[in-house]
Amino acid sequence: MVGVAVVGLGYWGPNLVRNLHDVEGARAELVCDLRPDALEGIARRYPAVRTTTDFADVIADPAVDAVAIATPVSSHFELAARALEAGKHVFVEKPLTASSDEALELIELADEHGLVLMPGHTFLYSPPVNMIRSLIAAGELGEIYFISTSRVNLGLHQSDVSVAWDLGPHDFSILRYWLDETPSHASALSRGCVIPEIPDVAFIDLEFPSGTVAHVELSWLAPSKLRRTTIVGSRKMIVYDDTSNEPVRVFDSGVMLRDPETFGEYNLTYRTGDIVSPHLEVAEPLRLELEDFARAIETGSTPQSSRELGLEVVRMIEAVDASLEQNGAKVDVGAERSLV
Amino acid sequence: MVGVAVVGLGYWGPNLVRNLHDVEGARAELVCDLRPDALEGIARRYPAVRTTTDFADVIADPAVDAVAIATPVSSHFELAARALEAGKHVFVEKPLTASSDEALELIELADEHGLVLMPGHTFLYSPPVNMIRSLIAAGELGEIYFISTSRVNLGLHQSDVSVAWDLGPHDFSILRYWLDETPSHASALSRGCVIPEIPDVAFIDLEFPSGTVAHVELSWLAPSKLRRTTIVGSRKMIVYDDTSNEPVRVFDSGVMLRDPETFGEYNLTYRTGDIVSPHLEVAEPLRLELEDFARAIETGSTPQSSRELGLEVVRMIEAVDASLEQNGAKVDVGAERSLV
Amino acid sequence: MVGVAVVGLGYWGPNLVRNLHDVEGARAELVCDLRPDALEGIARRYPAVRTTTDFADVIADPAVDAVAIATPVSSHFELAARALEAGKHVFVEKPLTASSDEALELIELADEHGLVLMPGHTFLYSPPVNMIRSLIAAGELGEIYFISTSRVNLGLHQSDVSVAWDLGPHDFSILRYWLDETPSHASALSRGCVIPEIPDVAFIDLEFPSGTVAHVELSWLAPSKLRRTTIVGSRKMIVYDDTSNEPVRVFDSGVMLRDPETFGEYNLTYRTGDIVSPHLEVAEPLRLELEDFARAIETGSTPQSSRELGLEVVRMIEAVDASLEQNGAKVDVGAERSLV
Amino acid sequence: MVGVAVVGLGYWGPNLVRNLHDVEGARAELVCDLRPDALEGIARRYPAVRTTTDFADVIADPAVDAVAIATPVSSHFELAARALEAGKHVFVEKPLTASSDEALELIELADEHGLVLMPGHTFLYSPPVNMIRSLIAAGELGEIYFISTSRVNLGLHQSDVSVAWDLGPHDFSILRYWLDETPSHASALSRGCVIPEIPDVAFIDLEFPSGTVAHVELSWLAPSKLRRTTIVGSRKMIVYDDTSNEPVRVFDSGVMLRDPETFGEYNLTYRTGDIVSPHLEVAEPLRLELEDFARAIETGSTPQSSRELGLEVVRMIEAVDASLEQNGAKVDVGAERSLV
Predict the structure, then answer these.
(1) Strands A26-32 and A50-52
(2) Burial class (CB in 10 A: 0-12, 13-18, 19+), A273
(3) Number of Cβ pairs closer than 8 Å across A and B?
(4) A235 and chain B in contact, CB less than 8 A
(5) Residues 270-329, chain B: which have Cβ within 8 Å of D?
(6) pTM score of the predicted model
(7) β-bridge partners, A243
(8) How far apart are CA D233 and CA C194, in angstroms?
(9) pLDDT tens, D40-55?
(10) B14-44 residue pLDDT tens
């Protein structure tokens, strides 16, 4: 039984505490936040969980085997580093760190101490995302031509990070997971509409070594919530809509290029077949994610949401930032430095 | 009564002939196509319309006051120029020409001969597009922060032009019409998925002098038809879906930034109000467009789909092409040369 | 080549003329309507088709082998009878006649003269309807528990017939076609909302000998068009929405009753599987229907939309009327007199 | 502060306990269920709440001012009667009782002891339902012509009651609340598809004294969840879809009958205007309901979900049962005995 301390009671922290109650191999031991009233709320709901306002208590506590960090991203590195140095396994909410240098340093620290370091890319545990990954891996879609995704809704402007740092980790981790490759290049256009210095809408283009291109639209400003991803393959196509009762819809449609004629005429065939909404198991991704964390600690397995994937996601966001600084120019994602 | 010759019986030509029958001030006199069987089809349907395979007949015909050109874009310039030189008013299907130089030359020719030259940007006559233009013009949406649009479906790969030349004129003309300004910069990512040398998917970013940014996604490869445009303003937002029974939906939603606090805290208010689908008149845009052409010929008025707008649309596509050639770099649209 | 005269240029007549142009084995010879201006419109469009305001011309014309009647239902019997007596094959728009007695008399007349009599139940030629019929016939849905259907929209109040006579033939013919049986009982509730003496909304219950029950909601008053039918079988379920891009959706869902326990406990299993939208051929049902009519004339085959089915549909509407007159009581549909 | 005992930990009981924690004027004191393991679950979650398996403890407890009964309907009467006799206020989950006689007896008991008796018709506290009630009351819809509603989904067959007793209370209470009148007549068709003796689909017709008719479709067998109600008025129409992000949509559409012509011609005008989705407050209906209960206890006010409304709902279900027993005949709802 892994004793876990949850640090930070913003949006994700309470979800972590709640889910830890349902995880077989782990237990919420301690909860840490600077705000006493946030701690009180938890104490009332979960009388068995101890609380503290001091992170020093967390790393000093012998009942705490692992620390789950759900604080603002700027503090991820320092808190994770201190926990690792104190011999605690570490789970960090996405994005892993505020820079790839920080991520690399944490990875080194984890190696040094033989500890688990895991970023919380929850979507890697979502049934629709995994269904799509299986279909891609099985070749059902053929070559992946392109992916276009929109993650927008009205809400929750962050005051410390851009929309790319806030929402980008979702799509970047999913793309990395589905395609099993890191993009080679990124470019982006962004605008701070409400607060000029904080970009709240971003249009991001990604190019992958295999030829796949991806477009990612992120925004905190939208008339209605949209979580829509289109995956166009040479054999089939998929629409993944996370807000729908049928989140995955597989279209047996495509265009075939038959032997090009001698005189420059193209001979195309359009194919439109059945559309299937495969049945999906109902599961709470966050619980599966925490179980993966507990399993990694107990068995030494590599979690699906690996530290290397977390590092690459940070590099992708850094590339977006670099493109924005260079007036939208296409930027090298630095995959050559990839650890995977 | 304006006598019109329709040249080219591909997709649009027959629609032009059909709609000319409903236009008050114009009449289809002559139809020209290189393929005798295409002409036969028209002759059977419209026995009163004469046919020819020779464009020389068109410009020589004294009953022909105006020529409507619906041929592949590569031939627009030559045919339009010959018609203008023969003293015929000219209507050209979008895009106006294959280059802005050609467009400028046609404009000069039209001026020289005192003739109407009009590109067929049909969407400028669509009731939803005009409803949205009115709302923007009336300030209902406030400042236009950004516009994101998807025009995709499975189908009709062109063998001579890219998806940007084929579908781009729709969105570019609409954006120009709504915002009343030409973008200053464009950048793009594109891929030829089915036929490598012919881009069939494009992700295009546009920046306008006022600060508005726009994203345009175009594709001939998609699981289902999408004609969805989101317009995010500081006061209201609109979703325009041309495939829906309710093509315009106005969201009285937004984010307000209240007096920023002294110490870097932002004070945001989210507002979510009613959603309204305004009732729209039913009208055939193509008929309205041809009536505007006839009116321009008879009264000297400037058509809503003006030659200058047609020129700017060509410049926008050229900028997209230039960006693609420069590896996605941000390109000046050349608005400084604008005639408007 | 069957020479056809179309009688009545209301809503359906012009569609019949248009489709006859695409039918291989038939040709529109003559068009008849009391209103000269309606005839002029047709003459302008189809110069080869002759016109008359006198039905006597129709039945006297030797080039007319068959008469297609698209007049108000009250005149169906007289016109059809005169045509049959004149030796013409007869196609009648739905419903076949204004009473089952009239229908029986027409059937006798047709037998007497050895002529084809066919009601125009167009939905029997619609690809979605036929796809569903095949699935039911193949046992894919198991036992059909119940069918619930809504056919409502804002519009086209008839001044001579109730909504049951106007819209009922669609659903009644489809149900008869799918289930291959005539309902034994009907009951109904109706209201004349706008014009008290003309029912414009009806809720109709039907019971079939096999145990299947059906509910049919019909209305000319509705906020939006609905053409939605749910078919619940013991093995699978179908939603048929004729306004959708995916008109047929097959749900592999159901409830299984396992060996009931000894002490009154029921052991139910809920099954939720994939949802499939089968690809459907695109076809114009009206053209297929007219081809079936021409085939029946030329080969003596029985059309899918048979006169017996037409008779049973009339009996179903009569049963609805009888129930309404008897304060909503359950009424015998009179299937024992069925000819099938 | 009202001390409440919750009796019955099936589907609704735990929701009552949870919501009582958020209600200002009430507190969950005691929870009672026959199954010790159900009690344990509550005890773990809410350590402050006491538990018992014996209802005698509930009515003997001086800290218990009121009893909330969420047991199967067959036990409602006995438990409620015992609680009232012990001087406890009573809240009963819908339907109030298994017969109108039982309901009348409970009402008498409550009067005798001067106690609150309240059925839990939660939908009367739902923001969309109240928005629609206000629009109807304000005359926005004009005369209510008819209401058609579908409440179907795959699931949760009850083994003790029919679908009319299980799902009917929702729609019957809403209709009563909106229309402010009890139906005069009811008729119904039903079928036990999975378990022959337990009807799992029902089609119910209701007629109201004002002329309004209503159709209610209820089923535990359906391909997908449907909570769709259409309200057609003489001035406007509403679609209420409780599963949608926009649960209320108001259509400014209708048909107007202008001065009927002298010779039997009707002169109808169709009007199609804007569609509005009014913004709705987010609120937890169950919490509002319990607050109304607490308020009734403390101030003597009549709760929105009144005992009389609860009685009438039971009478409506009884009328449905009577119609089913009489082969679908139209049955008097017995409103003449109404207490309201």
Answers:
(1) parallel
(2) middle
(3) 145
(4) no
(5) 272-279
(6) 0.94
(7) none
(8) 10
(9) 989 888 888 999 999 9
(10) 999 999 988 988 999 999 999 999 999 898 8
